[in-house]
Amino acid sequence: MYALEPHLPTIWLFIIAFFLLYYAIADGSDLGIGILSLFAKDEEERTLMMASMESIWHDNETWLVLLGGMLFGAFPLFYGLVLSSLYIPILAMVFGLVFRGVAIEFRGMSTNKRFWSFAFGMGSLITAIFQGFALGALVGGLHIENGQFAGTVWSWFSPFSLLVSAGVVCGYSMLGANYLILKTEGPLQDKSYFHSLLASCLTLMVSVAVHGWSTLKQPHLLKKWSQIPESLYMGLFLLLAAFSFIMYFYSLHKRAEREPLLWNMGIIVSSFTALSIGLYPQMIPPLMDSAPVTVHAAAASPKTLMFMLVVTSIMLPIILTYTSYKYRVFKGKVTAGTHGGYADERYGQ
After folding, report:
1. With the C-alpha atoms ordered 255, 261, 264, 266, is the resulting torsion angle positive or negative?
2. Which residues are within 8 A (CB) of 251 and not within 5 positions of it... i.e. 6 or more apart?
3. What are the helix (H) ranges across the chain?
């Protein structure tokens, strides 16, 4: 135990990074479906889109709750600073999630399905936009003095965070389109291939801009490119992201169904890892002359981290086993005649 104590903050950083990536990929898919539903041609098409995420959307949002609880327990200083500095985008994100969930449930019982369809799409879009603002504010840096947030109520809003927000919207749309490719067929699948190509091109352009701007904006990140082995690791994962993009476009060209989503996951993991290596050990990069908040400074006591690690090592395999089983049970295509699904029961089709 004593030999493990110095490494506990880093171990928990890896665990939280896993939960964050899982949430971004899983909930990003159904948020992307919600965004794309705003461009559906009619209510029948929206019904199929919502039917494709019937079995996953409740669970996906639960991962966000788990992520918040783990941050509170493992990195209380980081949790407190994030809430005090980003409460506007966080509250807007929560509103979007609530409004979106209400819309999904009410649409099936309402005679005015168009209104609730619009609410579902806008709730998804609002959630994605403000998640992007929060992420952009964190990567761009916060003004922290003496362990307290010293910025203004609008510190989260900047040209950089606006660019990151656009990237999150495009990235979620890309995930949503790829999930629809996997789960649907016919005209909706054809449209999803087009949406996937369009969203991926926009995501690629924004991602390159964000990585470049982050490097110029953060001296710590720029310095990492002159250090060995950090620069090698960052370069390797950026090459993996580039390779994943190439294979992704190839999978779209040959109209594969499963591969676009898998390569999309590879893009997200590789890009996130490269950026994380560059920022480590900072959890909140500095803004102006303020000091950064590092992993070890933000971590809870070793006893707390060890207790949480034991509990997580027991619960995480159970959660992953259940989730894997659920995906296996509900695999397959969703069609207008899917008995027992949203298209027949929840929406009266």
Report:
1. negative
2. 259, 260, 263
3. 8-37, 43-52, 57-74, 76-85, 87-107, 113-140, 159-183, 187-217, 219-224, 230-253, 259-279, 295-298, 302-329
Least Cα distance to 59 among 29, 93, 17 occurs for 29
In a domain, 342, yes or no: no
For residues 20 and 94, give the distance between their C-alpha atoms in angstroms, rounded to a whole number.
Answer: 16
Q: Is residue 347 part of a domain?
A: no
- What is the tens place of the pLDDT at every residue in 296-346? 999 999 999 999 999 999 998 998 898 888 888 888 888 765 543 444 444
Indicate the pTM of the whole model: 0.92
List the beta bridge partners of residue 331: none
Rg of the chain over Cα atoms, rounded to whole angstroms, equals 21
How far apart, in whole angstroms, are the C-alpha atoms of residue 117 and residue 113? 6
Cis ω on the peptide bond leading into residue 302 (within 30° of 0)?
Answer: no
Instruction: Name every residue whose Cβ is closer than 8 Å to that of residue 278 and which is 6 or more positions away in sequence.
Output: 214, 215, 218, 220, 221, 224, 225, 230, 234
SS3 at position 152: coil
In a domain, 15, yes or no: yes
Residue 179 in this model has a pLDDT that exceeds 90 = yes
For 57, the domain range is: 8-335
Q: In whole angstroms, what is the distance from residue 85 CA to residue 115 CA?
A: 34
Q: Let me know if 2 is exposed, middle or buried by CB neighbors in 10 A (0-12, 13-18, 19+).
A: exposed
How far is 334 from 144, CA to CA, in rounded Å? Answer: 49
Give the CATH number, domain containing residue 213. Answer: 1.20.1630.10
- Is 316 a domain residue? yes
Q: What are phi and psi of 225, to 5 degrees?
A: -70, -10
- What type of residue sits at position 153? V
* Tokens representing residue 49 in the block: 């889109």
Query: Which residues 6+ apart lie within 8 Å of 56 measured at CB?
Result: 26, 29, 30, 326, 327, 330
The domain tally of the chain equals 1
